[in-house]
Write a structure and sequence with these properties.
The chain is an alpha/beta fold. It has one domain: Rossmann fold (3-Layer(aba) Sandwich). A seven-stranded parallel β-sheet has the order 3-2-1-4-5-6-7, sandwiched between helices. Helix 3 links the parallel strand 2 and strand 3. The longest helix has 28 residues. The N and C termini lie far apart (52 Å).
Length: 273
Amino acid sequence: MTPDTLFSLAGKTALVTGGATGIGRMAAEGLMAAGAYVLIASRKGEACEEAATWLNALDLPGRAEGFQGDVASAEGVAALAEDVGRRTGHLNILMNNAGRTWGEPLGGFPYEAWDKVLSVNVTGLFQLTQALLPLLRETAQPGDPGRVVNVGSVMGEVPMGDGAYSYSASKAAVHHLTQILAKELAGDHITVNALAPGPFVSNMTAFATADDERREKVGRGVPLGRVGRPEDIAACLQFLCGPGGSYVTGAILPVSGGINVTTGPSIFERAFN
């Protein structure tokens, strides 16, 4: 076994939603590095085109194409699925990365912050997956399954609100939905897994990771002592989507530097200090 046989994505086509920035862009680069043709879609089509141009300039084995696509409405999901069908005759990998957050203190968290977040993070994720199932089924085989990778969050695993109540709840829903779909789509030879990232540098976390000083401070709160790096995401995608990950489904992969296993202090610690 070699890296080429375990992680190669040569000849594979992927769609990454929200792929212009942050974790989506890290994932797109990882997929391209393994040889995939990557479609990048988000609400901001121009940003996706710019991201594709930047990624293609890296001279990786794969290539990228960017365009507009919005999963926040039924019409947007239908239009995106139709556009993907026009651009490619088959789809091997779907990464549901598009996401939205909202932060307000408890006591002032607004009603509309629920629908706006869940419509993208949960409803849009599910509806797009459903709409693209025909393309995924078309190429899925017992030894080479189709792949769906959803982006959850460590905040969907551990009770961390941090003012982002609808976001945390939405990511817990993503994790549960991932396992439901993994069970239901196994017979179609489609694996469904999720990432549960901790802090990474992105537009969504810019308030806390925009500069080295703040990133260092955030990293102190992570058991492994740092924020996530692009290669942490890229490697996960190469594993879950490559030949080496073809027997893994229903997994919620923690990419959080150990936050996922953080608990409170020892309840007996004070007795000895």
